[in-house]
Amino acid sequence: MRLYLQKFLHMVRRLAVFFLVVLCSFRLLAIEAIVSHTVFYMPGVAANGKFIPGLDLCWQVNPATLHYATTPDKMIVANIKADVTFIGDTGTFIHDRYIIQTVPRATVEELKQQTILELRKYKMAAGPVKIKLVLTDMADSFKRFTYTDSFFVAPVADSVFFSGIQLLDTSFASNAATRFYKNGKQLIPFCTNFLDDGMNSIKYYAELYGADKLRPASFPLVRKMVISKSEAGGFWAGFVKTDTILAPSAISPLEGKFDIAALPSGNYYLRLTLESFKKQTLAQATLFFQRLNKHPQIVEDTTKKAAVSDTGIENVTVVNLSKTFLAKYSLGQVRAILKMLLPFSDNDAARTINGFLKKPDEMYMRYYVYNYFVAINKKDPARAWKDFSSKIAAVNKLYNTHNTPGYETDRGFMYLRYGAPTDVITVENEQGALPYEIWQYDVLKQADHKELANAVFLFYKPSQLAGDFKLLHSNVTGERQDTQWRTSLYTSQNLTGSIRDTRAEQYIGDK
Prior knowledge:
It is a single chain. By secondary structure, the chain is of the alpha+beta class. Helix 4 packs antiparallel against helix 5, helix 4 (331-341) packs across helix 6 (362-376) and helix 6 packs across helix 7 (381-399). The relative contact order is 0.08. It has helices at 2-13, 108-113, 302-309, 331-341, 347-358, 362-376, 381-399, 410-418, 485-489, 503-507; strands at 33-43, 51-61, 69-70, 76-77, 79-88, 91-101, 116-123, 127-137, 140-153, 161-162, 166-173, 181-182, 185-189, 194-195, 201-209, 221-228, 240-245, 251-259, 266-275, 281-291, 423-427, 436-445, 451-460, 470-474. A hairpin with a 5-residue loop joins strand 19 and strand 20. The chain is built from ten helices and 24 strands. The longest helix is centred in the C-terminal third of the chain and has 19 residues, at 381-399. The protein is 20% helix and 36% strand. The radius of gyration is 28 Å and the shape is elongated. Strands 10, 11, 12, 13, 15 and 18 form a six-stranded antiparallel beta sheet that branches.
């Protein structure tokens, strides 16, 4: 047991390399800390044996940013108050407050070696969750650290499903009853998804649940972990590991690591998938991380292999988002920005954005938005955002309604996607027809980049209560096309004169 404890303490200290522990910096005005959280599932007695979600919350403090005091027995300590709040759809459901004291040290040199690491476990409910963690130095209440994040806790699936993916600093076999114990091991979390120059490997842990519900004929199952530039598919160079699950089990843990000495700087995903022997995907989990590698190890054909195996390769910037134009925007505002991007998105990008809107993950959402504008202007993404937002403002001025921003209306959406139409024909009081509006483009570039001459859009108000015009029909590929548009537009067959005399018939006809 003593050997395990010594090994445990030694491994925990390695986490301190993540901070520059300079004791002369004790006058810093704020606590520096890093935080991570991972959703796991556990059998619940109160839930009739069914799995219930839980959260591992891990945080680590830079000891050089605390105010220390000397105890009567001449030991050096600091005290930190932690306030943890979880907010769901119905309001706050957990508020945890506690105080931890650092391990007493006799000298300043000993302080340099210490690690302040905390891991707490909380029961969760399925649905959107917002977390707020506030750390306060008890000796100086002005020294604080505040962390907020929003994420989605998936409900327990009827079949196989994964936990979240947790990054590890280290692990070792031990049945000691510590807060780091899990499945016969001590798992020491790595409390950040940023891997800098000093990190040459990435270690991970996850759990698979519900394989015991599968029929024996479903086995063997193939579990695959990859590093990729895309959340959806592909992998970077040779960063692929697979193992086989031969027999059913209620919980099947997975632990492993990748050597990342050759992984260049950039934004990446750890992606875990479970496949049947017929190559059908049964479950998937992803974790976003950043890599800073100023001198990547050169591996023969690495770039060539990556280009072949990963369709999501792009030039990205490793960045602290708290220092970008996005820092001032709330989660709700980031959601709005994602909606603004939809008119400019292809099908894959639109699926990604709609996935964020249904199951918000604040960190992923912010990186998605940031990288979108980096792709437009690498040197000054804030300028790209400013230019973009001016277009949004112009569209809002044209098409805002009392309860819908202009960019979310059908007309605003098409205006952003295709630009201003050549002609606009508004028909408010045509006998026997609902109010409608026709947009005509002399030349329009479609989603497939082919140009279409004489493109038209037909918008209408389906009722007098409708706040704005809705798109009814278009001859543009990829947009709504309804060859029975007349049935929706015309409310009466007792039209004065021929139906062919209507403006809609003249401009659209059988297009």
